[in-house]
Design a protein that fits this description.
The chain is an alpha+beta fold. Helix content is 28%, strand content 23%. The strands form 6 sheets. It has a 7-stranded antiparallel beta sheet with strand order 3-2-4-1-10-9-11. A 6-stranded antiparallel beta sheet has the order 5-6-7-8-12-13, with helices on one face. A 4-stranded parallel beta sheet has the order 17-20-21-22, sandwiched between helices. Strand 5 (108-112) and strand 6 form a beta hairpin.
Length: 477
């Protein structure tokens, strides 16, 4: 079969990234948020924003700056300097179905009867249409196309009948179905919450007398903060002038952390729920060497997520590890480009092959996934053009067979190559000499110590019932 030719051509997309901080000594926090977002740039490269407030200033006065592009493009020393305040939240965004437009940038700042709140969100809700319809029939007018606004409105509504903002967040959570890690700033408090299944990470850090909420521990390291702990799935944490407080009334024993956080989304120097992402990828490579061995001369990884898995394959197999790709770090991830022609062009701009590493050699190429197959085909072609005599592709995840509704931009199965072709057929389509995937029954080896993970994209076993129709246009990460 041939894939339908339209503008929606999915590959794996990053999640969004969030960073919040409350400095109890009253120091300005905008520059710290900036560096934290810089460390989370891999999670979203379309837009970013920062909102701050001064807990000692006028009640409810929020200053914010948002824009399209990378953190380094949107923020300057001048616009950071005017963001005065000791409490704030920041966000880097990759859009799923919500348009990549300035009005969809985060954090969202909402003025309502009880004051002001700013919200930054990572994840996807699957019941956005129902939640939105309820609000629309009560007179709500939406300014964005993202589910973050729906969530903010419901929190604001609950706040009218709650003693505190954190209580409103706790009451809102049972209404929300899907994946969400959020940071909420009110004039005097910073609140963090993680959905009861814990799809995506959220961690707590401490920097001198400031508390931090972040999507990854790598962001804490970037600002020289100490890791305190992970926010528990279902937990709401509240930070105020007296310190940090916790509500676990929405916590459950069933968890479903996204397995792709370990395979691809997170930085290798991040720990999620006590598990090292780097070690997970090393293990994936070792398993591939055990289950799909091959005679070869060098093992190479497709940057960045393929590198650690390639090292694991080399360590297990005894085949030398090589750095075959030179990466242009100033090009966004290939699959954020909306048109296929642009995507293929950006692969060539982003990666260059070193002939000195692969010429005349049998190469094992390790990558994290094959979704559509176009990118893999281009890279295999580049390796052979550089002189590789054979290219054996090994993938550190199982075949991607099912849509994801919880934060990855693949809400339909129309373009998933593994859904329509056998492994041998995919091998031929990408031009590889052999192809092997990580086995589904070995996924648990990647997250030893974790209490549960979501592998629905491989198995179809969804931890939350998926929506009945196409969710594009209804929500966003």
């Amino acid at each position: 079969m041939q894939f339908k030719d339209n503008s929606y051509t999915p590959e794996l997309h990053e999640e969004c990234g969030i960073f919040g901080i409350y400095d109890l000594d009253g120091k300005d926090v905008a520059s710290t948020i900036y560096y934290g977002l810089f460390a989370l740039q891999h999670r979203g490269q379309e837009s970013c924003g920062i909102a701050v407030s001064d807990t000692n200033g006028p009640l409810g006065k929020v200053k914010s700056h948002k824009g399209m592009g990378l953190v380094s493009e949107v923020f300057s020393p001048e616009n950071l300097e005017v963001l005065e305040g000791n409490i704030g939240v920041g966000h880097v965004r990759y859009s799923t179905a919500g348009e990549s437009m300035i009005h969809n940038t985060q954090p969202l700042v909402l003025n309502y009867a009880k004051g002001t709140l700013a919200l930054a969100h990572n994840g996807n809700l699957v019941n956005t249409p129902e939640l939105k319809r309820e609000l629309e029939y009560s007179g709500a007018i939406f300014q964005t196309t993202i589910d973050t606004e729906v969530m903010a409105y419901h929190i604001a509504r609950e706040r009218l009948h709650s003693e505190t903002i954190e209580e409103a967040v706790v009451k809102t959570m049972p209404k929300l179905s899907g994946a969400y890690s959020i940071a909420v700033m009110s004039p005097r408090k910073l609140i963090g919450a993680r959905d009861p299944l814990g799809f995506h990470p959220l961690v707590i850090g401490k920097l001198e007398n400031a508390y931090i909420l972040a999507s990854e521990t790598a962001a804490l390291n970037a600002v020289d903060a100490d890791f305190v702990r992970d926010v528990l799935p279902g937990e709401v944490v509240m930070i105020d002038e007296e310190g940090i407080h916790s509500d676990t009334s929405n916590c459950t024993t069933k968890h479903a952390t996204c397995i792709f956080e370990y395979i691809y989304f997170a930085r290798p120097d991040t720990h999620i729920d006590g598990v090292s992402v780097y070690n997970s990828r090393i293990m994936a490579g070792r398993i591939l060497a055990q289950t799909h061995p091959v005679e070869a001369d060098v093992v190479v990884g497709v940057p960045d997520s393929g590198n650690a898995a390639a090292l694991g394959f080399a360590l297990q197999s005894g085949i030398p590890f090589g750095m075959a790709f030179v990466k242009n770090s100033y090009v966004g991830r290939t699959f954020i480009k909306p048109k296929q022609a642009m995507r293929e062009s950006s692969v060539r701009i982003k990666l260059n092959v070193l002939p000195e590493v692969v010429a005349g050699k049998r190469v094992v190429m390790i990558d994290d996934s094959i979704v559509r197959g176009t990118t893999s085909a281009n890279i295999v072609k580049m390796l052979k053009k550089a002189g590789a005599t054979e290219v054996h592709v090994r993938i550190s995840s199982p075949p991607f067979l099912n849509p994801c509704y919880y934060g990855t931009d693949i809400p339909t199965g129309d373009h998933l190559i593994a859904r329509h072709y056998s492994v041998d057929q995919i091998k031929d389509r990408i031009g590889a000499d052999s192809l092997g995937y990580l086995s589904i029954d070995r996924l648990s080896d990647l997250v030893k110590g974790d209490t549960g993970f979501c592998d629905a994209c491989f198995t179809g076993n969804y931890p939350i019932d998926p929506p009945k129709g196409d969710i594009r246009g209804e929500h966003d990460v």
